[in-house]
Protein 1
Amino acid sequence: CFGCRKTGHSVGNCPEAKQSGQDELPFAKCFVCKAQGHLSGQCPENSKGLYPNGGGCRFCGKVDHLAKDC
C-alpha cells in the first residue's frame, strides 16, 4: 500500500489513509518527476495524466481522472 506501506490491501482500501483523511501517498514514487508522495497520474509535470497514450476523460476531456470518476 502506498498509504501505509503494509501488505494485504491497496491505497484505495487503506484504513489508515481513510482515518487520517490524507490525500498524499507518502510511500509512492512518481516515475515522471522521481519525487516521493504522489503517483504519475497526479504529477504536475505529467501532461498526459492518467492517459499515457493520450486522450482524456470521454465526458470532459481532462486527464486527471477516469471517466468513471467524472
Protein 2
Amino acid sequence: MSKLYFYYSAMNAGKTTALLQSSYNYQERGMRTLLYTAAVVCQKNDIKYIRSRIGLTSSARIFNGKTNLFKQISIVNKEKKIHCILIDECHFLNRNQVIDLTKVVDILNIPVLCYGLRTDFQSKLFSGSLWLLAWADKLIELKTICYCGRQANRVLRIDNNGCVIRAGSQIMFGDNNQYVSVCRKHFHKKYN
C-alpha cells in the first residue's frame, strides 16, 4: 500500500540529499522515479534540477501554484510506470496540490515522498507544510542541530550584521548564510 510521506526539518538538515538518495535507491533497483521542485526556487536561476548542498543533482519537473500534479503524474505514469514521486521544497505546495498527491497515492498507488520546511523564520507554517501535516500518512522529522547542540527545529533570518530579522516576506531568496537553524529555546531568546 502506497503512502504520502512528509519529511520536514529546519534548514540544513539534508532534506534534498535524502530525497536524491531515495530516488537513487529506487533507480538502482530498476524503478522509475519522478522528481519535482518548486518554480519559486528556480525562477531566479532558471534551473530545472534539484541540487543538494553537497553537490548531488538530478533533473526535475517544476511545479507552481497552478500545476495540477495528479493530472501530470497520471499522464506520465500511463506512458511508463512510475514507482515513486519525490517532491523537493514541498512547503511551497498549496492545498489542492497536497490533495492531488493523496490521489496519486490512493488512486494510482504510487508512493509520494515530500521534503521541505515545516515553518518559516517567524515560526509560522508554510501552506504546503500545513496541508501535509494534515493529510500525510507518515510524518518524519529530519534532524539538524542548533549551535548549542540541541535539536534545531526553528529558523532565524539574519541580516548581514548577524541581527535577527523579525518581519518581511515569508519567501526571500539568497544564500544559506541568511538563515540559522536553532532550537526553540534559542529561537525565543534571539527572536523576542
Protein 3
Amino acid sequence: MRKIKVKLMLGIGVVFLISYSIMMVNIGTNQSIVNKSDSLLTSNYASLKHTFQMLRILNDINIFVAQGLSEDSVAGQTMLIADKIEKFKQPLQLQVDNITEPGELQLTNRLQKSFGAFEHYLIARERPFYWEDYNRLFAEVRGDILEIYQMNAESLEDKNDSIREHAAHVLTLQKNVGIVGLTLLCILLVFLPLYLLRPVEHLTWKLKEDYEKAFNKKVKLKKGHELKQLEDIVEKMMASIQKEVPDKDDK
C-alpha cells in the first residue's frame, strides 16, 4: 500500500505540474502582449499627443497674428501671443524628453531652432512685421511638427502590425501548449490507474494461484474492480482455511 500511495502522490504531482505549466505559459505570453502594448502607448502615442498640442497652439498664435493684421497692429496682440508661446514650450519640452525613434532627435532639434526663430520674430524683432517673413517661419515650425507627427504615426502603425503578429503567435503557442498539455493529461488519466492498480492485480492473481494450489479448487473471480476481486479471493481463502482448521469446540 505504501508503494501505491507513493505512485498516487507522484501521479497527482505530475497532473499538477502539467496544469501549472500550461497556466504559467498562458500568463507569460499574455504579459508579453501587455508589455508590448504598454511600450507602444508610452512612447509613440506620447509624441503624437505632444505634436498635436503644439499644432493646436501654433494655430491659435496664427489666429492672433491674423487678428492683429486686420487691426493694423500685430503688436496689440503681443501679450496674447507671448502667452501662447509659453504654452507651446511645454509640449515642446515634453517632446524633447520623449525621443524614441531613429532620426527623431534631429527633427526635434530642428523644431527647437525653427520655433526659436519664430518666437524671436514675433516677440523681439527689431524690424517691421512682414507677412511673407512670418509665413515662412510659421511654415517651417509647422512642417517640423508635422514631420515628427508623421514619423511617430508611421512607427505606431508598424508597431500595431507587430503587436498583431505577436498576438497571433502567442495564440498559436497557447493553442499548441494546450493541445500538448491536454494530450499528456489524457494519457496520464488513462495509464495512471493501470500503473497504480497493477500491484493489486498482480497480488490478486498470485493469491488466486496459491489458493488453487493449496486447496485444489478452481476459482472464478467476479468481474468488477480490482480491489473487489482482491477482497473476494481473500474471503474465499479465509473461508477455506476456517473449514480446514477445526474449531476448539469440535475438539
